[in-house]
Amino acid sequence: MRNNDTEKIDIKLASLPKPSLNNDRKQEIKHTLAEKMSEDPKVKNQAKIMDKVIVKMAGAAAIALFLLLAFIPMFQNEGSNEKNGITRITDHDTKETEETVISNGFKIVNHLYDNMDRGHHDYHGEVVVDENAYAKKAPTRGDIVYYQTPEFTYDKNQDLNPSEFEIARIVGMPGEKIEIKHGQVYINGALLDTFYGRESHTGKLVKNSNVELKEVKIPEGHYFILGDNWWRSIDSAIFGPLKTQLIKGKVLGVENDTVPFENSQGHVKIDFVKTGMIDFQVSAEGLNPNEQYTISLHNNGGGVTFGPKENVKIQAGEIVGEVTFQPNSAGVLEVSMMNPVRIVEDKGEITINIKSEMKIKEIITSEPFEILIGKADDLDITVDFNS
Question: Domain limits of the chain?
Answer without folding.
Answer: 23-75, 100-255, 265-385
